[in-house]
Amino acid sequence: MKNFPTLSEKNQSNLIHELTQYSLANGLIIYPPDFKEYQPNLAPVTLFPTPYPSKEFEKSILIATQFNSLYGSIVSEKKWLMEIIKDLSVFDSDFTGKLYSTHLEAEKQGIPQPVSLGLFRSDYMLDNISNEIKQVEFNTVSVSFGGLSTKVGQLHSFLNNYGLYTSSGAPYYKSDDLPVSDSANGLADGLHQAVTYYESKHTDAKTIVLFVIQPNERNAFDQRAVEYSLYQRYGIPSKRVTLPEATSKVKVDPTTKKLYFDGSEVSVVYYRSAYGPQEYDCQEAWDCRLVLETTLAIKCPSLVVQLSGAKKIQQLLTDSATVSRFSPDAANEDLLSTFVKIYPLDDSESGAYAKKLAFEQPHLFVLKPQREGGGNNVYKEDIPSFLKSIPEAEWAGFILMELINPSINKNLILRNGEIIDEGVISELGVFGTLLFNEETGEVLHNAAAGHLLRSKTASSNEGGVAAGFGCVDSLYIH
Amino acid sequence: MKNFPTLSEKNQSNLIHELTQYSLANGLIIYPPDFKEYQPNLAPVTLFPTPYPSKEFEKSILIATQFNSLYGSIVSEKKWLMEIIKDLSVFDSDFTGKLYSTHLEAEKQGIPQPVSLGLFRSDYMLDNISNEIKQVEFNTVSVSFGGLSTKVGQLHSFLNNYGLYTSSGAPYYKSDDLPVSDSANGLADGLHQAVTYYESKHTDAKTIVLFVIQPNERNAFDQRAVEYSLYQRYGIPSKRVTLPEATSKVKVDPTTKKLYFDGSEVSVVYYRSAYGPQEYDCQEAWDCRLVLETTLAIKCPSLVVQLSGAKKIQQLLTDSATVSRFSPDAANEDLLSTFVKIYPLDDSESGAYAKKLAFEQPHLFVLKPQREGGGNNVYKEDIPSFLKSIPEAEWAGFILMELINPSINKNLILRNGEIIDEGVISELGVFGTLLFNEETGEVLHNAAAGHLLRSKTASSNEGGVAAGFGCVDSLYIH
Fold first, then answer.
1. Which of A321, B179, B211, B376 has a Cα-to-Cα distance from B146 of 20 to 30 A?
2. What's any one GO cellular component for it (chains A, B) (predicted)?
C-alpha cells in the first residue's frame, strides 16, 4: 500500500479551496440544520479517498445480486417471514407491530400489485483481524447516499487528476484505483425497470415515480441526483410528497386501484422516508401507508420487503442452512464469510449461551435493540449493567452481535470549513436493485448498483452523515 | 406571441421549490456578500425565460464573428488606436492612462507574444420602438456569466420539459424556442484554441491556463464552469491567482520569457479581474500587469485589446466609414443597425452639435463618463444640471449616447427566496472568441460563443448580477 498523501499547509489549504468549489459547483451538497432553501452547505466529505483492499471490495460487489436474491426469496416465503415478524411485534409494538398490522390490513383489503421493487444497501465494515468485510446490516427501505456517493467519487478523481494531491501536480493515485460509484445511475436504473414493467402491464399513459419524502429533508440533493438521472437518461419524471400529506394529495381509482398524483398516473411509489417510528407520529402517516400499499403502483419497498430488513432476519441468516434453504446460490463462502455471530437473548438454547457470553465476554459484543429506531446500541462493558437494569423478560427484545473491529485509517474530514484529524472508521455500502414478484418469487431484474463509503471519526460509535457524525468518502483500492 | 404562463399560487410555490433544488444541484450558484466558502446561495434568476424576437436573436449571433474581426483589426492598427487612447488618458489618467503607460512600458521592455486571445461580449438592448437590438457596449476584458448562462438555460428547459410551467404538466414552450447558450463550452473552446496554438509553437510541455481573479470572488462558480469545461473536454487544467499576488507567485524565465506558476508552464493568462480602477489600489497590481504582459504567455486580453473596449472607440465606430476602413465585411446593414448615436462632447463640430442636444433634448440621452468604472451615468433631464455643475473643459470626459428604450417584459425574479414582480428589462450579451496576431492582423480562430440574457427590474437603471440589481435569465424566442 502506498503512503498517504502528505501536503504542505499551503497545498492542503489550496486543496480544501478547490475541493469546496468543485463540490458546490457539482451538487455535492446538503442542507444544514434550520436551513433556508436557497442556501445549502458543502456536504461533509473526506479530503482523500480511503484505502480499501481490492479483494474485499470486489467480493462485496460480487455478492450483491446474491443478497438481492436471498431477500427476494425470504419475502416470497411470506408465511415463514410473517411468523417471525409477528413474534417481533411483541418487542416493538409501536413500529414493527404497526407495520405488520398495516400489512395485514392491506392484505385484507387486497394488494393488487404482486410485483415489488427493492433498492437495497448491504453495509459492511472491514474487520482488522481477518481483513475481511463483515456485514453490519442489510437495508431494505429508503437507502441513502447513492446520489452523493457518485459525486464524491467524481470529486476525489478530479482532485487526483488535477494534481492537487501532490506538490508536483502529478496524480497521486492511479485512476483505476479510484472507482467512481455508479449508484446515482444504478438506483435510477432500478426505478426505470419498475416503471417500464408497470407501463408494459397496466397502462398506455406516461407514468411518474412518486418520491415519498420527509418534511424539511436535509439530504434532498442525494435524492435529486437519482431523480435527475432517471429523467435525463430515461425521460421519466418524478414528483415528491411528504408521508403524512400523501393521503390527501393522491387519488386512487376505486376500480382499477391505479394511483394518481397531480393528474399523473404513478407507476412506482419510492419511499425516501417511512423507515423510522418518529415519522409515524400521526394516524395520517399510517393511513397513508395503507392507502398506497393497496394501489396498483409498484412499491419500493412494500411493507413486507421493508419488514424483511429486521435485525432478527439478519440474525437467522447467520445460520448457513437458512441461507441454503432460501437461496442455494447465496450459500457460498464469499457471502457467508461476511456474517458475524449474532445471537438472540431469548429462551432458546442459543439464547442461553448468548446470555452467558454477554456477562462473561461483553467486550466482544454490541447489544442491539430489535426495536427499529427506538433505542441506542449498548457497547462492550456497558452490556452487563444495562441488562441488569431491565427485567429479564425484556432481554429477548435485543440481539447480541459480535463486534466488528474496524480498521482505523488516516484521512481528514472536512465539515463546515473545519478539518477533523482523528483518523476514520469507514463503512462500505453496496447497492442492489431487485424487481420481483412477491407471490411467485419470479425475478424480473436483479443488479448490483454501485457502492458508498461513509467514514466517521474513529471516536464516534454511531451516526449517519446527515446527523452530523460522519461524512461521504470514496475508495482507493489497493 | 404566446401569453405568459399563469400559475396558481400552489403551482408557483412548487415551481420555486423545484427551480431552487435543481439549480443548487447543478451549480447555478453565487456567493452572497460576506460569505463562508462552503455556503453558497442560489444565483438570482428569473422564474421563466423572457420573450425575445427570433430575428433579432439570430442577427446578434450572426454578427458576433464580424464584431470579433472588427475589434481585431482595430487592435492590429495599433498606431491609430494608441493615438486615441493617449487622448483619452487626459480624462482618465488614473486608469486608462495607467493602462496606456503600462502598455508603453511593456513595449519598451519587449512583448514577446504577438498572438492575443479575446473573449468578448457584445451587449444589446431591444429597442421597443424599432424592435431592433441596439448595442449598449462591447466588452473586451473579463466578460462574465458565460458559465451561469448555460446553466440558467438548462434550468428553464428542465422546468419546461418537467411540466412545471403549466397546471396540466405539459410543456408550456416548444423546446426549440428555448435555446440553451453554449457559452460555458464556447469560452472554454476559445481558451483551448489559445493553449493549442501556444503549445504548437513554444513547448512540448503540458501547459496550464492561469486565471487572474479578484480576491473573495463572489461569482467564482461562473468562472469554474468554464474551467471545468476546459478540463473535462480537453484535459487542460487551470490555476487561479489574485491580481496583486501574481507577481510574487509566478516565475518568468529571463531568457525565454516563459511564464511559470507552481512549476507549470502557463500558456494563457486569462483575466477575470483587472478591469476596474478599484482593483489597482496598490502598485503591486500594476507591476503584476506589466510582468505578465511581457511574458510569452498569450494574454486574454492584452492591454491593447482591453483598451480597444473604450467607449470612445465605440463612439467612433458609429461612423460606418470607420467600420468599413477596419473591416469591410463588418460594414453591413445588420451590424451597423445595432449602433445608436453616440456623440463626443469635445471641441469638434460633432461635439458642438452634441452640446446643443444635451441641453435641448436631454430626455433622449444618457451621459456616460469616458473614465472606466470611475463614475455613474447621468440620465435624461439630469444631464443639463450635471453639465452646468462642472467646468466645460471637463465635458470632453463624457460621451452623449442616445437612450435605448428597452421593452419591459413580464417575468418574475427570484432572489434570496423572494419573488420580485415589477416587470423586467433585459440585456442580451453575445460572446465571441478571437485568437489573432496583433502585429499582422492574422486571425487564427474566430467564433461566436453563446449568449447571455441578464434581466433587472424595470425600475433600476444600472447594475450587474453580482451587484444585486439583476439576475440571470434565458430566452424564449418567438
1. B376
2. cytosol
Question: What pLDDT digit, counting tens, does each position of A425-473 carry?
Answer: 999 999 999 999 999 999 999 999 999 999 998 876 554 444 445 899 9
Distance CA A434, CA A140 (A): 11
Model confidence at A246: pLDDT above 70: yes
* From B163, B221, B417, residue closest to A36, measured CB to CB: B417
How open is the CA angle A207-A209-A215, to the nearest 5 degrees?
145
Q: Is A265 part of any known ligand binding site?
A: no
Q: Cα–Cα distances in Å, from A346 out to A243, A308, A396? A: 35, 20, 5
Cis previous bond, B301, omega within 30: yes
Using alpha carbons, select from A123, A81, A96, A79 the residue that is nearest to residue A397: A96
B398 contacts B368 by C-beta, under 8 angstroms: yes
B206 catalytic per annotation: no
- Catalytic residue selected from A59, A89, A121, A397: A121
A46, A471 in Cβ contact below 8 A?
yes
Closest residue on chain B to A17 (Cα): B37
Cell 519598451 appears where? B108
Task: Please tell me what DSSP assigns to residue A340.
Answer: P
Chain B interface, Cβ < 8 Å to A: 17, 20-22, 24-27, 29, 32, 36-42, 162-163, 168-169, 220-221, 224-225, 228, 231, 237, 262-264, 416-417
End-to-end alpha carbon distance in chain B: 6
Peptide bond into A301 cis (omega under 30): yes
Active-site residue flag, A121: yes
Average pLDDT value over all residues in chain A: 94
Is B417 in contact with B94 (CB distance < 8 Å)? no
Which whole number is the average pLDDT over A274-293?
Answer: 91
For residues A44 and A22, is the Cβ–Cβ distance under 8 A? no
Instruction: Report the amino acid identity of residue B72.
Output: G
- Cross-chain Cβ contact B263/A169 below 8 Å: yes
Q: Is B439 a catalytic residue?
A: no
pLDDT band of A322, cuts 50, 70, 90: very high
Residue of B22, B38, B237 with shortest CB distance to A42: B38
Q: Do B38 and A41 touch (CB under 8 A)?
A: yes
Q: In chain A, pLDDT over 90 holds for what percent of residues?
A: 88
Chain A contacts of B32, Cβ < 8 Å? Answer: 39
Average of pLDDT values for A372-382?
82
pLDDT at residue A469, rounded to an integer: 59
Q: Contact, A240 vs A226, CB < 8 A? A: no
The arithmetic mean of pLDDT across residues B350-375, rounded, is: 90
d(Cα B284, Cα B288) in Å, to the nearest integer?
6
Tell which residue, B451, B468, B458, has the closest CA to residue B425: B458
Binding site annotation covers B99? no
From the candidates B139, B160, B426, B446, which is the catalytic residue? B139
**Active-site annotation holds for A9:** no
In CATH, which superfamily holds the domain spanning A341-403? Glutathione synthase lid domain (3.30.1490.50)
Q: Does residue A183 sit in helix, strand or coil?
A: helix
Whether residue B125 is annotated as binding a ligand: the answer is no
Q: What would the pLDDT profile of B245-281 be if each residue is shown by its tens digit?
A: 898 999 999 999 999 999 999 999 999 999 988 888 8
Q: What is the pLDDT of residues A70-86, one digit of tens each?
A: 999 999 999 999 999 99
Give the HSE-up count for residue B203: Cα atoms under 13 Å, Cβ half-sphere. Answer: 21
pLDDT value, residue A2: 57
For residue A185, pLDDT beyond 60: yes
Angle at B143 between CA B59 and CA B423, to 5 degrees: 65
**What is the domain partition of chain A in residue ranges?**
9-340+404-477, 341-403
Which pLDDT does position B466 carry in this prediction? 43
Return the bridge partners of B414, or none. B45, B419
pLDDT given for residue B281 in this prediction? 86
The C-alpha atoms of residue B18 and residue A262 are separated, in whole angstroms, by 15
pLDDT at A465: 46
